[in-house]
Structure formats: C-alpha cells, structure tokens
Amino acid sequence: MNNTFVARGLFLMAFLFMLFINSNAQIDSTYIIKRGDVLQIDVMEHPEFSLVAVPVMPDGFVQFPGLGSIRAAGMTIKEFTTVMQKNVEKYVVNPVLTVFVKYMPSQVMNVVGYVNTPGQIQIFEPTDLITALSKAGGIKDIRRCKWVTIVRQDQSFEKYSVKKIFSKNFDRAEIPVLNVGDTVYVIEPNGKFNWSLLTFITQLAYISVLIWINLR
C-alpha cells in the first residue's frame, strides 16, 4: 500500500472526526476547564446569550458576544457557571444558566487502521488495549489480523501479537494499558506501514485539533 496515500487518508479521517463530533461529555461540576476544551453555554429562554460551541482559547479565555473575554481555564464547571451568571445578570434578570463541556481534546486517544470505527476515543482514566479496540468497533477480521502497534505520547513504539493478546492463556494482567495521547494502529493483514510516518500523522492530527478549535 502506498504510504503517502495511507498518510493522507489517516490525516483526513482524524481531521474530519474532529470537525463533525457533536456529543456532550458527561462530567460533573468539579471538572476543571482546560485550554482547548469546547464549552456549550445555555441560558434558558434567552438564545441570544446561548452558545452551542465556544472554545477555550490558548490564553484561557472564551470570547462571548456582547460580554467580551471571560476567563475559563483553571475554573471548575461550577465556578465558571457562577461567573457567567454574574455577567449575564447585567442583561437578564435571574438567568438560569447551564454550562456543558461539549468536547475535551485533552482527554482523547486514537485507534486507527484495521478496525470497524477508526477515530478518536475520549478516556478519563487509563484504558486497556482490548477495551479501546472494542470502543473502536473491534478488529474487522481478527482471524486475519496479526499485529497491533501502540504509539505512545512520547512517540515510543510497542508491537503486540493479536493472536497472543486474545488467546485464552494470555495473562490479563499483561494487557497493555493506554493513556491520553496514545495511538493504537491495527495493522491490516499483509500490510506494511512506515512507523515514522505514523508518528508524523499523529502530530498532524493534534495540530488539526488546535486549528479546528481556533477557527470555531
């Protein structure tokens, strides 16, 4: 398979996934907002003050039409909600305001290659390899697939035999554990891939996240 074609395909997949994702993260009010998070702000019965997707900029502020720049990074959801209520109170009497975290690019890992649903997966704690593959729809044909490679956030590589990991005698304690920023690449049957190129692709995918956030 042509490496350039694969690279373009994986990069486009990562970028489009980021562009069209549209689901609120289920977290509690103690979550601390981070730079790059995308927030949804709802003001009941006042759509003019509601925002479907507002990114937290690199400086830690959100840009709110009519209210200007408001700091968000470093605050909990509850604290930021209180700040927003005080700002909106200048224009709305007793506003009922709710803040959601729509997307957290800082809490994702990637699963690409020979799986049914490649893309990014949100994780909030270390996740084992089998769970990650399951969230990606599973391996397309596990009988034909031989190898899985993990690219760690520090760009180190680990290669595992699919047959060994899914064998009945495999020690479950030895299943690789994945963290935020890791990338799982399931190698297609009889396929070859340039691993240095995969590292470059994961970096491009991260850059595409930042571009998407800043252009919203």
Which characteristics define this entry?
Outer membrane lipoprotein wza fold like, 2 domains, 5-stranded mixed β-sheet, 216 residues, alpha+beta, disordered N terminus, disordered C terminus, 12 strands, wza like fold, 3-stranded antiparallel β-sheet
Describe the structure concisely for a colleague.
This protein is of the alpha+beta class and 216 residues long. 29% of the residues lie in helices and 25% in strands.
Strand composition percent: 25-35%
Low-pLDDT windows of residues: 3-8, 10-25, 211-216
Strand-pairing-aware structural class = alpha+beta
Q: Can you tell me the CATH superfamily of the largest domain?
A: Outer membrane lipoprotein wza domain like
Mean pLDDT: 80
Query: What is the number of independent domains?
Result: 2
Q: Could you estimate the helical fraction of the residues in percent? A: 25-40%
CATH topology of the largest domain: Outer membrane lipoprotein wza fold like
The CATH class label of the largest domain is Alpha Beta
Per the principal axes of the C-alpha atoms, what is the gross shape?
elongated
Overall radius of gyration: 20 Å
Tell me the strand order in the biggest sheet.
7-6-12-9-10
* SSE sequence, one letter per element: HEEEEHEEEEHEEHEEH
How far do the termini sit from each other? 35 Å
Largest sheet: 5 strands, mixed
Count every beta strand, where a strand is a DSSP E run of 2 or more residues.
12
Query: What is the level-2 CATH architecture name of the largest domain?
Result: Roll
* Count, helices: 5
